[in-house]
Each structure stands twice: as structure tokens, then as C-alpha cells.
Write a structure and sequence with these properties.
This protein is α/β, with parallel strands linked by helices. The protein contains 8 helices and 8 strands. Helix 5 (about 160-180) links the parallel strand 5 and strand 6 (about 185-190).
Length: about 270
């Protein structure tokens, strides 16, 4: 499906700031037609202006809140109506949730916003997608994923455990997508510790971010842009990357049986068939 001869269409979720915006600007400068997806209309408009300044063309904007699965379903319908192909889907939207929160759909917010929502969107757009790039994280090391109980983090809530669990799910989803969808090239990556809007509502997290060896959003987006452009013959389908090199995630994020169980549980959670 991917258009390797002409201009590509790239949909970037979580594109109103941080890694998503940096990637969108870079891709637009390279000549791609970028589509920005975000939750906040004002920040989406500001992001669109940055992209326009970078490439001279204003991108299309789609608003969706990944904490609401009906928003994701509506987003998929609008994208399908607008485009007959999506050369690259960058599943980048995500959040660190500082306290236990349950969405209107009944799921812990981290696992829904960071995994279930992009899982649903990707499934609903599968026949349109040529390549999928998922923003995962080295934080998967703190993950404690149980596909039989996606809300397990709510019982003894720790924000980094919940976040790490969702990032573990990202890596497993990418690998399983590669096995189930041979026509969709699927990759995920760790962007490094990036200074973004994460933790803005917590002074403690903000202080920790200042003390860590953080990267700029542009540096964090480099591997996303590289995976979106690299010849698939030089990449590992379903692979996990860091700084443009393949890495081996921890065993709990590389277990094919766990990945298959997660896929089944996720499909049931979002109401689609396997």
C-alpha cells in the first residue's frame, strides 16, 4: 500500500506538542503530507501553524480524545472518509497519569490512552495502512501486564508502573501486529527521556524531569522519522528500536504467547473481532 514513488500521507497522533509535533515538522519538511491528531483544539491549531511555517502548507487537523473510545471510532471514520490510503500511521499519543483514573469506557486511563485507543484505531484503519510506527518506551521495564485484568494497576496505583505496563503493551502489540498483518510494516521505538508536557501537573515529576538527562523533542522524534522513512528491507518487522538501532526489549515485552493473549483481551475490550 505504501506509496514509495510519490508524496506520502502520514498521520501522527499526539501531534500537538512534544515528539509528535517535532516528527510532524520534520516529515513535512521532507515533503510528506502530514495529518495532525490531537485532543486540544487550541494546541492543534498552534501545532498546525508550526508545520505551515516549516513547509509552507497547512496540515489537516483531526481532534480526538483517546480517553474516549467513541472518539477513536469517530476519528477512524473521518480518516477513512478523507483518505483512501495512509502510508504511515504514527501511533504516538500517550500520557503519564499521576493518579488512578478510570475512563468513561471503564479502563485505567494509562492502558486506554496509551494502548487500547491506538490498538482500536490501527485495527479500524488496517486496510488503509502501509506502515505503522508506535512510540513505546524503555519504561516497559516497570510493566506488570496481565491481559486477564487490564485494570490491575488501579488497585495499588503507581503512576510509573501503570505507564510502564502500557508501554509493555505497545511493544507486544507491535510484534503481534507484524505477525497478524504481514502487509502492514510495524515498528516501535524508545525515544529516550524527552522533555515534553508529561508531568506538567506535578511539581515532583517536573523536578525529576529537570534532573534527568533529558532530550529535546526533536532528538526524541529522530527514530520515529527514521522508521517512517527507512527501507523496510533494512528493518525488522515488529522490531523495537532505540537511536535507530534494533534493541531487545525485556522478556516480558517479547513473549509471543503474552502478545497473543494481549491481542485477544484488547480486541474484546474495545469491542472488535480478532
Amino acid at each position: 500500500m505504501e506509496d514509495v514513488t510519490g508524496r506520502r500521507l502520514v498521520v501522527v497522533t499526539g501531534a500537538s506538542s512534544g515528539i509528535g509535533l517535532a516528527a510532524a515538522v520534520d516529515l513535512a519538511r521532507r515533503g510528506d503530507q502530514v495529518v495532525l491528531v490531537g485532543r486540544d483544539p487550541a494546541r492543534l491549531q498552534a501545532a498546525a501553524e508550526q508545520v505551515r511555517e516549516a513547509c509552507g502548507e497547512r496540515p489537516e487537523l483531526f481532534r480526538a480524545d483517546f480517553a474516549v473510545l467513541d472518539d477513536v471510532r469517530g476519528l477512524a471514520e473521518r480518516l477513512r472518509a478523507a483518505y483512501d490510503r495512509i502510508d504511515v500511521l504514527a501511533n504516538n499519543a500517550g500520557a503519564i497519569v499521576l493518579q488512578p483514573l478510570t475512563t468513561v469506557d471503564g479502563f485505567e486511563l494509562s492502558i486506554q490512552a496509551n494502548h487500547l485507543a491506538p490498538f482500536l484505531l490501527s485495527n479500524l484503519l488496517r486496510d488503509r495502512i502501509g506502515r505503522m510506527v508506535v512510540t513505546a518506551s524503555g519504561a516497559h521495564r516497570s510493566g506488570t501486564l496481565d491481559p486477564d485484568d487490564l485494570n490491575a494497576p488501579l488497585r495499588r496505583y503507581r503512576s510509573m508502573t501503570a505507564y510502564g505496563t502500557s508501554k509493555q503493551a505497545n511493544i507486544l502489540f507491535t510484534a503481534e501486529a507484524a505477525r497478524r498483518w504481514p502487509r502492514v510494516r510495524s515498528y516501535c521505538f524508545h525515544p529516550g527521556v524527552v522533555r515534553t508536557r508529561f508531568g506538567n501537573d506535578s511539581r515532583l515529576v517536573a523536578l525529576g524531569m529537570r534532573m534527568l538527562p533529558f532530550r529535546s523533542p526533536e532528538k526524541g522524534a529522530e527514530t520515529l522519522v527514521w522508521l517512517a522513512n527507512q527501507d523496510p528491507a533494512r528493518l525488522i518487522d515488529g522490531g523495537y528500536y532505540f537511536d535507530r538501532r534494533p534493541r531487545r526489549p525485556l522478556r516480558k515485552a517479547a513473549d509471543p504467547q503474552l502478545a497473543a493473549r494481549l491481542w485477544t483481551a484488547s480486541a474484546k475490550a474495545v469491542g472488535i473481532g480478532e
